[in-house]
Amino acid sequence: MITLRVRRIEGLSPGFTSVTLGGPGLRDLVVAGGDQAVRLFFPREGQAALRMPTASSEAWMAQVMLMPKSARPRVRNLTIRRARPGEDEVDIEFARHGDSPLSSWLRRVRPGDPAGLFDLGTTYRAPEPSRPQLLVGDETALPAVLAILDQAPSSLTAEVHLEVPTRADVRDVVVPPGVRIHWVTREDAPGRRPGTVVLEAVRRAELPPGRLHAWVAGESRLATSVRRHLVGDRGVPKADISFAGYWRHGWSTPD
Ligand SMILES: Cc1cc2nc3c(=O)[nH]c(=O)nc-3n(C[C@H](O)[C@H](O)[C@H](O)COP(=O)(O)OP(=O)(O)OC[C@H]3O[C@@H](n4cnc5c(N)ncnc54)[C@H](O)[C@@H]3O)c2cc1C
Q: In Å, how far are 80, 95, 135, 166, 172 from 13, measured between CA atoms?
């Protein structure tokens, strides 16, 4: 359990905000890179302080649930977009949306405010460098995909399909020559369930030849549908696909 302070908050584009957290507690974080995820603890509206659990095992969850709601922190899963161990800092990039607890924290958070982390580790396992990769995600998976690409070898061959809310959320990304990023947005399809536009793009896409390694994350129906498509229509073995539902449309994190 690592307690930190917010150092900087930066709007990246209409749909994304970056928050830099820092403090000596980060010396206890083993930076694994890739899609390394954390539980982020932050105060509820009206709470002046952050009360962190103390158990550095899954027992933290019971500790949190036993706290009275007035003292209990909120907890959400996020990705470490970038770590700067020498400066005791990590950046987290948030896809803002609607009026959720996380979006509301992003509106009120200020430098100096407390926040906490609990490491969840990584699921992305780079295959042998000769194998082509397929990376697919919605806006919640963008930080993980960009972190994976930051660390990719220059020999990487990959097709990357990303969905973000608007054209202004598309990033300029420098990638190895064998990597092609295909951006889609919901700008011309307002109201569409996130993940559906990129799912259609993957269904139409030409996949790289050779034994593919696929990594898919985002809205849970996107993750399961891409996996089903790859297995059923493209013959990709299940063992070659890593997929994760990062959030579920219409389902709120219980807290
Ligand atoms: C391993 C992992 C890594 C993740 N990394 C990131 C990350 O780096 N950046 C990031 O932004 N998110 C990331 N997420 C997703 C994030 O945890 C969820 O989106 C989370 O539900 C947001 O909490 P909330 O308080 O906004 O909404 P909740 O309280 O969980 O839900 C409230 C409502 O908002 C809806 N909702 C939740 N998220 C979204 C969304 N993105 N767009 C539209 N509606 C939504 C829910 O369906 C629900 O109706 C990650 C999730 C996992 C599991």
A: 18, 10, 22, 9, 12
Assigned CATH topology for domain 2-121? Elongation Factor Tu (Ef-tu); domain 3 (2.40.30)
- Model confidence, pTM: 0.97
Determine the 3-state secondary structure of 17 from DSSP. strand
Ligand 1 within 6 A of CB of 246? yes
Q: What is the pLDDT of residues 114-160, one digit of tens each?
A: 999 999 999 999 889 889 999 999 999 999 999 999 999 999 999 99
The Cα–Cα gap between 244 and 137 comes to 10
Would you say the CB of residue 95 lies under 6 angstroms from ligand 1? yes
Contact 64, 75 (CB under 8 A): yes
Q: Given 3.40.140.10, 3.30.870.10, 3.60.20.10, 3.40.50.80, which CATH number is that of 133-247?
A: 3.40.50.80
Our mutation pick for probing the ligand 1 site, out of 246, 248, 251, 255, counting the most ligand atoms within 8 A of Cβ, is 246
**What is the CB neighbour count within 10 angstroms for residue 59?**
11
If you measure from the C-alpha of residue 39 to the centroid of ligand 1, how many angstroms do you get, rounded to a whole number?
A: 12
Each residue of 169-193: b (16+ CB within 10 Å) or e? bbeeeebeebbebebbbbeeeeeee
When pLDDT is cut at 50, 70 and 90, the band that residue 56 belongs to is confident
Polymer length of the chain = 255
- Nearest CA owner, ligand 1 atom 37: 247
